[in-house]
């Protein structure tokens, strides 16, 4: 993990930033303009400091990208090590992992956004995409297990299901506003209800209604 | 619509392209490098013709973008004028529109991809985003109507439902391979089953299984 000085101390220092806060601004700028289109000059402008002051915190633009992607990937990978992801019925483990993935998405929104928009043009990007594929692959394995145990429908190719499910979850970064009326918890409830139980009212309920 | 000459005739001509085929290559290059990062020089290189030969087909890079976005938006907007979108129960009209949207996504994949990745930095982009929002807004209206008529569950905020549904549909452009084993028709069946009936087997079926 990235070591940072006590932020109180650092903020009184002249450049006004520690590595973590430089990173936070950099990620916002990368998401706005695209990583490739963002020069160190643009970053310096957005931070209100000189280019050499940025190099005091981080050796290169690629390192900023690497650190930012680590924030997202490290948090996602850690989910799979949690007890809820490894014990119990596959269906419950799958739900647990999806709920926690939504937590990470909403808590680390700009970092996950950056990860999901990667094109894979550099070594750092290709490495991050490989780790993301590995995470997706493990979640797909949980879906297969849930299907095997008879919890999930089997008339849809599991590859299609996995892709549609990730498509739904990943699209959250495009519109979710942290701190708004919709909590991460309620969003997770809604997504799980929709994907696993469907939007249609059960026929019985429709007859009564 | 764009008028094109018979491709057989045109391909024997010297520049080797008509406007539609220049457009098709341009869209692929825009999707690969990003619209802003693509210069007319890069386009010329990919087309294997000179910059001035491109200007013979289209006055500017912005016009290529406008024509490409028209391909996507015109097709999407036309769906809402079809009889299946305007007559019958809201639930059926909604399903019709979603199925046809998936058709357009898979048939005009690169054009819709370009539309979905827009950042809105130019007038042409902002205009296209406005038309896309208008389309989304009309589909959201159908969902509201389906909920009103008692076809859809009402414990999820309709704005959340709409966003998750579009997230799922739009994510198709990121992975769908036209001409592969998964037909557009089967993909539409799968997506409709998953979103409206859910991935879980009904409890009764699970007890039997």
Automatic annotation (TrEMBL), chains A, B:
It comes from the Bacteria. Keywords: DNA-binding, Transcription, Transcription regulation. Pfam families: TetR_C_24, TetR_N. InterPro entries: Homeodomain-like_sf, HTH-type_TetR-like_transc_reg, HTH_TetR, KstR2_TetR_C, Tet_transcr_reg_TetR-rel_C_sf. The keyword Transcription applies. Residues 16-76 form the HTH tetR-type domain. This is DNA-binding transcriptional regulator, AcrR family. Gene3D superfamilies: Homeodomain-like, Tetracycline Repressor, domain 2. The keyword Cell inner membrane does not apply. Residues 39-58 bind DNA. One of its GO terms (molecular function) is DNA-binding transcription factor activity.
